[in-house]
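S.,

As promised, the iron/sulfur cluster run. Input:
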Amino acid sequence: MYPVPNSLSPSRVESFLSCPLAFRFASIERLPEPPAPYSTKGSMVHRALELLFTHPNEQRTVATAEAAFQQATAEYLVDPEFTLLGLDPAAQDAFFADAWVLVQKYFAMEDPTSVRDIGLELRLEAQVGSLTLRGIIDRLELDAEGRLVVTDYKTGRAPSANYEQKSLAGVHFYSFLCQEVIGQRPAAIRLMYIRTGDVITATPSEQSVKFLTTRTTAVWKAVEKACLSGDFKPKEGPLCKTCSFQPWCPSFGGNPELAKVEAPVRFAAPNPA
Ligand code: SF4
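Predicted complex:
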């Protein structure tokens, strides 16, 4: 039996649906995980764009982005999310060079001087029954007609048509949060895939928001049931390739009950020399 969480975020919902056992390790037992270069790079690019947007519109040039990027680099050089990657100098150079390429690619997708942003990295939460839904919106802005638009930066590749709907599930989560907290349903939600230049736009509707609350409530009930029974099943899939918890996964011959003791040792930060 495990404590039942009383809040869910879009990433937690998707994590439970992808693999209940990995969800248990990460979100219920809160075991440490080593950082992954792609997610650290994504966070750093988000930070550089956030810093760019703290400047007035007319100053949002590539030169300002470069200064923002330098600030983000300085922050990440001392952040465990970066230092625990253990990159050698050549790999570090390649990491930052690619992150800068992503920031430059962003400028090919839109002109930040014309964006009417009203919020950056907004933390919103709303209640569905006894459950709190939480999410962070990268950027909230107004379109030409003054309607709300949510923009979410993605640094991975755009999903294929088959997976597009799945990637939009989180989007409807943001839409629900805006409706509950700000009192207005966004006119559009945009996913900007910076590496490939793709943009996926969703138009939230009353029906999509209703679907979101029904789906999330169903996931929460499944989480609750798993917590009370202690039965979090492994679900093999594409995520197994990069899953930090593979050594304790029964699908790979591991014992889940050893994770609590072994994971903190295996993933402990090395002592500074
Ligand atoms: S290795 Fe695969 S099945 Fe096992 S916990 Fe990780 S994601 Fe789940």
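The pocket of iron/sulfur cluster is lined by residues 19, 21-22, 234-236, 239-240, 243, 245-246, 249, 251-252 (CB under 6 Å). The first strand starts at residue 7 and ends at 8.

- D.
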